Amino acid sequence: MTPLADLLARRIAATGPIRLSDYMAECLLHPDHGYYATRDPLGRGGDFTTAPEISQMFGELLGLALAQTWLDHGAPAPFALAEPGPGRGTLMADIWRATRGVPGFHAAAHIHLIEASPVLRAAQARALPSAPVTWHDTLDTLPDAPLFLVANEFFDALPIRQFTRAGAGWRETVVGLKDGRLTPGQTDAVPLAELAHRLADTRDGEIVETCPAARPAMQAIEARIAARGGAAIIVDYGGWHSLGDTFQAIVNHRFADPFAHPGQADLTAHVDFEALLTALPCRHTRLSTQGVFLERLGITQRAQALARQMTGERLQMHVAAHRRLTHPAEMGTVFKTCALYPDGAPTPPGLEP
Ligand code: SAH
């Protein structure tokens, strides 16, 4: 049993089963035993890898897309260059390097990183040694300024609640104890106003997930873009409309039982972009797949330019990284991209209104 499993088991024995969202929040962010709070899970020695860790091309293209949007919107100065969930800081470091040559961009930018993990904050500081950076616990404290934001694999880490349709009501997934071990179970079915709209498109036994923390995070972003201008590019795995059980654990690049290693596995769920993009005070683009988005931004030309200086194993890895980011059988289709932008402003590059 992990130390966190022990702690949660005692809590559940004392006060009863806990919601899946509470379980996920404790597993990821418990100050002493949480997965992100205690380690750097990314990169070669870690449990999983992400697009910016696979190739510098991802951050370079996102950075230039963001800088082009900034120019298209009249180069507002000063502005907040922000990223929630920046991991090791690789994406922001690539964005910062790629935008060096954009006249006025660095002079007008202040970087704002929203990060819950002290371990990863330290990694981010190392990745951005000479850039102007402020850290935040939540998106709520971002400055009241034009906001140019990227988020890659942030929303999938936010805790979800999970409901199973039962007649006109819903059973909620909770974590309880069976023979002293953490075990998923379900509450009795109750009608839920917030899921009333899903009664029309689900059948008995089907699963719907919600992400309570996603709305306040989106509100902090969309309110600034609507009032002060800017744009947000969001990349994550998921789709339009939540249906089915997408709660998953990854340990050492493999799927694992999400209840077996609390605090020692990465827990995520697919992002429901429909819920993220509902009732916005600003515009949003359509969802594009990551592969199509990166191709539109010119990843093939960038890959060819970088390949000219490479040989042997380095070249092979570079070709594999391009494929991994864009190919439908790899990250190209599962990952989706969309952007928020103000009414009346041009659409960010690589995306469709
Ligand atoms: N964007 C990075 C890392 C993705 S991993 C990349 O693409 O490589 C998820 C990141 O979100 C980590 O940095 C994690 O510590 C952070 N995170 C998770 N939950 C968070 C929360 N509630 N508030 C702030 N950051 C959070």
Can you tag this structure with a few keywords?
9-stranded mixed sheet, 353 residues, globular, 5-stranded antiparallel sheet, binds S-adenosyl-L-homocysteine, 34% helix, alpha/beta, Rossmann fold
What does this structure look like?
The structure is a single chain. The chain has 13 helices and 17 strands. With 353 residues, the protein is α/β, with parallel strands linked by helices. The chain has a single domain, classed as Rossmann fold (3-Layer(aba) Sandwich). Strands 2, 3, 4, 5, 10, 14, 15, 16 and 17 form a 9-stranded mixed β-sheet that branches. Strand 6 (161-166) and strand 7 (169-178) form a beta hairpin. The mean pLDDT is 96. It binds S-adenosyl-L-homocysteine.
Largest sheet: 9 strands, mixed
What is the overall number of helices?
13
Mean pLDDT across residues: 96
- How many extended strands? 17
Helix and strand run: HEHHHHEHHEHEEEEEEHEEEEEHEEHHHE
Distance between the termini: 50 Å
Task: Summarize the model shown.
The protein is α/β, with parallel strands linked by helices and 353 residues long.
